[in-house]
TrEMBL record, chain A:
Coiled-coil region list: none
Name of this chain's protein: Cytochrome b6
Gene Ontology biological process terms from the UniProt entry: respiratory electron transport chain
Pfam families: Cytochrom_B_C, Cytochrome_B
Species assigned in the record: Armatimonas rosea
Domain Cytochrome b/b6 C-terminal region profile: 227-362
UniProtKB/TrEMBL annotation, chain B:
Membrane-spanning segments: 26-47
N-terminal signal peptide: none
One Pfam family recorded for the sequence: Rieske
Protein name as catalogued: Cytochrome b6-f complex iron-sulfur subunit
Keyword annotations of the record: 2Fe-2S, Disulfide bond, Iron, Iron-sulfur, Membrane, Metal-binding, Transmembrane, Transmembrane helix
GO CC annotations, alphabetized: membrane
Amino acid sequence: MVGNLKPGSKLYEWFNDRLGLDELVAFAQHKTVPVHKHSAWYYWGGISLFCFLVQLFTGVLLLIYYRPGPDAHESVRQITYDIHFGWLIRSVHNWSANGFLLSVFVHMFSVYFMKSYQKPREFGWWSGMALLMLGLLFGFSGYLLPMDDLAFFATKVGLEIPNSVPVVGPTIASLFRGGSEVGEQTVQRFFALHAVVLPLLYLPLLFVHLWLVQKHGMSLPPSEQEKPVAKLKTIPFFPNFLLKDLAMWLIAMNVIALMASLFPWQMGKAADPLAPAPPGIHPEWYFMSPFQLLKIMGNLMPGALGEGVGMGVFTLGLALWCLIPLYDTKSAGGKRARNATYFGLLALGLYIGTTIWGYVGL
Amino acid sequence: MSVELPMNPAESEDENDEKGLTRGSFVKVAIGGMCVGYAGIIGYPIYRYLNSPVEKSAAMAAVSEVALKDADKLPLGTAMMFRFGPHPSMLIHHKDGSWVALDAVCTHLACTVQYHPEEDAIVCACHGGRYDSKTGENVSGPPPKPLTKFVAKVSPGSVVVTRA
C-alpha cells in the first residue's frame, strides 16, 4: 500500500496534485544535520517532543475517568486501583512528565553551551524559554489534580510565589486558588488550566518553535564553525536523521514503560486541610532548586526580606538567562562569549548544586 | 555505528528470487514483527483501560436474581421500574392479581417502554411500538421481537425476580 505512494505512481500524483507533496518533500529534504562529536545533543529536543506527545495521549486517556472538583481524589483512586491498567496509564503520564522536563532542561543547556541562540536563532531561544515556563506550569497545575496530601501542600506552597509579588500578588494567588484556601475550586481551575488553557497556549508556540528550527536549520557549535567548510560532515534530516530520532524515541518509550511498570506512581491520602504537613515534604526535583534557594535565603535573612531577596535573585537570573541572545552576539571566541559560558556554568552549577543540597537536607 | 538502508528495493527483490531469504527482507520482516509486537503491547492495555466500565456492566448484567424490597405492596393495576443488573426492567401488578416482570427496553431501537394502565398495554413512546402487558408479546408497531419475560416470585416483604 505504502509502496504505491512512490513518486511517479498514479496514487502519488493524485495526492500530489491536491496536497502538494512535492513541496513537502522538498521542504523536508532541504534540512541537513551536522555530524560532529557534539551531535548527541541534537536528539534532546526530539526526545522532549516525544514525551510531550506521550503526555497528550495519556492525558486524554486519563481525562476519560478523571473527575475534577470534590470527586478528584476518589476518581484518581479509581483510575489507580479499579480501572484495568489505569495505574499504568497514570504512571506513564507521571514518568513521561518527568522525562519531558528532564529532556527540556538538557536541550536548553545544550543549546546554551553550543551558543545556538545567536543570530538568527533568537526567537528559537525565546520561544523555547516560553515553552519551558509553560512546561513547568503544566507540572505545577497537574500535580494538584490527584488532590492527595502532597499535592495539596505543594500547591499551597507554590501559590505563595505569586502571593509574594507586591500589590497585585495576593489577588493573582486568590484567582488561581478560587478562594482563600486550596480546595475543590482550585482543583477545578487547575484542571481547566492543565487540560485546556495550557495546551492551547503550548501547541501554537511549539509549532512556531519547530518551524523556526526547520527554517534556520541546525546550528553549529563554535568549535565546528571554526573548521573549514570542506571538513564539515552532514547527513540529510529526512530520512537519515529522522530514523535515528525515531530510534531515540523507541529508547525513550522503553525507559518510560520500564519506569512506569517497575515504579508505579503512588498516591497519598486525600487532602485534609486540618492535617499537618507530612514530614520531609518537598517539591518535585524540577522545583527543588528555587525551593532550596528560598530556604537558604530565609535562613540568612529571616522574615519577608529573605523571601523577597530569594525571589529577586531568581527573577533576575531568569531575566538574564532569557536575554542572553541580546548580550552574547556573534563573537565566537571573544570576551562576551566567554562570559556567557561562565554565566551558563554558574547557572547550571547553582541549579544542580541547590537541587542536591535540597535533597541532602531533607 | 551506521545503519544501512536498502537504497534500491528492486535490487533486493531480485536477490530474493535468487537466494531466498536475504538480509534486506529479513530486516524488513523483523522490523514489521517488532512494530506489530509494540502495537499489541501498547494497544492491549489501552483497550482494557477503555473497556473497563463495559466489563463492569457486563458483570452486572450477569446477575440472575434481584430482590425488590417491599414490592409486594405495589397497588393493583400499576407498574414499577427497577434495574435488573444494568437493565431498566418493569414489574406489573395486574388488576386480576397476577404479577409480571419484563425487560423494559423496546426491542425496536432500545427506548424504555411504559405501562399504560387504562389500556392495559405496554407502549413505546419513540415509534409507537405496543406489547401485550401479560406476555410481553409485540402486538403492533415496529418492534420485531417480544420483551424478555422474567419470573416474579412474591413473598411477604419482597418480590424476587429471576431469569426464566
